[in-house]
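Operator note (shift B, R.M.): manual run for DMT family transporter requested after the automated queue skipped it. Running by hand, logging everything below so the morning shift can see what happened. Input copied straight from the record, untouched. If output looks odd, do not overwrite the archive copy; leave it for review.
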Amino acid sequence: MNEKKDILTKTWVVAVLASICCMLWGSAFSCVKIGYSLMNITTNDSGSQLVFGGIRFFVAGLMALAMGSGAERKILLPTKTSIPKIMIISLFQTILQYFFYYIGLAHTTGVKAAIIVGANVFIAILVSSLLYKLEKLTAVKIAGCILGFSGIIVINLGGLSGVSFNFLGDGFIFLCTCAYAFSSVYMKRYSETEDPVMLSGWQFVFGGAVLTVIGFLMGGRLGHMSAKAFLMLLYLAFVSAAAYSLWAVLLKHNPVSKVAIFGFMNPVCGVLLSTILLGEKGIFGVQGIAALILVCSGIFIVQRKGNK
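Run finished. Output pasted below as returned.
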C-alpha cells in the first residue's frame, strides 16, 4: 500500500495520469458533436441534446460508483445527511452546467468551447475568494484571471472561423463554466465530511436523470441509435467516470496544487482534438494560438504560487 502511495506521489506519474485526464476531458468537446451527428441530433433540437447528455451522465454515475465501490470494497450509498448535499452539487455540477453546455456546444465550435471552458479556473477562484471567503484573492491570482479572460476576448474578436460572439453558443458555454465554479466550491466544502467519489457518482446519477426527463418533456428523443452512436455514448460516459475517478485518486495522494497545475492541458487538448477530429480551424491560426497562450498562461500563474 505504501509503495503504491509513493508511486502516485512521484511528479512524473502525476504528470502522466493528469495529462490522461485532460486528454479524456478534452476529447469530449469533439465527441459530443460527433455523437450529435451519429444520432441525427440537429442544432435546434435542444430536447434531444439534453436526453443525450442526461443518459451519458446517468451511466457515468453508475460507472463512477462501481469503480469507487470496487476501490473501497464496499457499496457507496448516500446517507440522509448527504442526500441534500448531493442534490445541491448536482444542481450546479450536472443539471445547470450541462443544460448550458449541451445547448451551447451545438451553437458554437469545439475550439471556442474548449477555450471558454478554460475560464472555470478563474471563475472558481473569484467565487471562492469573494463570495465564500475560502481563500485570499491575491494580486497574482487577479493577474492570472485577467490573462485568462483576455484569451476569451481574443477568441471572440470575430476572426476565428468567421464567427463572433453568439450568446446561445458562447454565452451558454460561459454560463456553463459559472455553474461549474459554484459546484467546485460546494464539492470542496462537502467533501470534508463526505466521500467525494460517492458525492460525484450519485450527483451524476441524479443530475443525469433530471436532464433526461427535462429533455423528454421538451420533445427530445434518441431515435437513431446505431452501433457507432451507442459506443460513442458509452465512451463519453466513460470519459466522465474514469477521468474524475483518476483525478480523485491523484488528489487523495497529492497536494491539490500539485495536481491542479496540470489543468492547463484541458483547453489545449480540447482545441487540438477539435482541430483534428472536426477539422475546425483555430489552433493553427494567430487568434487561436494567442488565445491558448493567454488562457494557459493565466492558469499557470494562478497555480504557480501555490506550487512554490
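Quick read of the result: The mean pLDDT is 79. The chain has 13 helices and no strands.
Leaving this for review. - R.M.
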